[in-house]
Design goal:
The protein is an alpha/beta fold and 201 residues long. The protein has a single domain, classed as Rossmann fold (3-Layer(aba) Sandwich). 50% of the residues lie in helices and 10% in strands. Strands 2-1-3-4 form a four-stranded parallel β-sheet, sandwiched between helices. Helix 4 links the parallel strand 3 and strand 4. Helix 2 packs across helix 8 and helix 5 packs across helix 8. It is globular. The protein starts with a strand and ends with a helix. Pfam families: LMWPc (PF01451). GO terms for molecular function: protein tyrosine phosphatase activity. This is Protein-tyrosine-phosphatase. InterPro entries: LMW_PTPase, Ptyr_pPase, Ptyr_pPase_sf.
Length: 201
């Protein structure tokens, strides 16, 4: 079984590809984990803008080969987890396929939930009977979904989103990265811990 993550933004040239590459690198030790990205209004065929490539390179992430693609229902249907860069993207996903609601979060939303529910993860893994990395990650997603409404929200709803830097200044690109990368790292750590708990059971 493959655990698949779909990262979603608007154009699929700035935020979602960087999140995709960050998550893929962090989860590389686990076999059968696939991370992809797409845009709700993709600039199909376009690459990652130079400012985003430059910032990604500082984290040893090579974004030069990315090519933007448009999201479709089959991608949503096949994804084990969907991480949207903003609430509007999550809304698009759920409106396209309502059944995806429990697998769809904004990236920063899931990072916030993961921080709050980490201590419940061992019990959730055991209750799910997860024995593979993929099953452990799926149990982690289910736990996050079940507790979504119980985690205190941020001070401002905008803190669920990663700001869109496309065609903005270098300062906006930096702000976008400063919002995105810690959230991606937290989500990856949460999924990785779930995988290790499942395989060590």
């Amino acid at each position: 079984m493959t655990f698949s993550i779909l990262s979603v933004c608007t154009g699929n040239v700035c935020r979602s590809p960087v999140a995709e590459l960050s998550l893929a690198r962090a989860l590389a030790p686990f076999t059968d984990v696939v991370v992809q990205s797409a845009g709700v209004g993709a600039l199909v065929g376009r690459g990652v803008p130079e400012p985003a490539q430059r910032l990604a390179a500082t984290l040893e992430i090579d974004a030069a080969q990315h090519v933007a693609r448009q999201i479709d229902e089959s991608m949503i249907r096949q994804a084990s987890l969907i991480v949207a860069m903003a609430r509007e993207h999550r809304r698009y996903v759920v409106e396209t396929l309502p059944a995806a609601m429990r697998r769809a979060f904004t990236l920063r939303e899931l990072a916030r939930i993961a921080e709050a529910v980490d201590d419940r993860l061992p019990a959730a893994i055991a209750q799910a009977g997860a024995t593979t990395a993929q099953d452990g990650m799926a149990a982690a997603v289910a736990l996050a979904a079940s507790l979504r409404g119980t985690v205190p929200p941020p001070a401002a709803p905008e803190e669920f989103d990663v700001i869109d830097p496309f065609r903005q200044s270098d300062e906006v690109y930096q702000r976008s990265f400063d919002e995105l990368i810690p959230a991606a790292e937290r989500v990856a750590a949460y999924l990785a811990r779930a995988a290790r708990l499942a395989t060590s059971a």
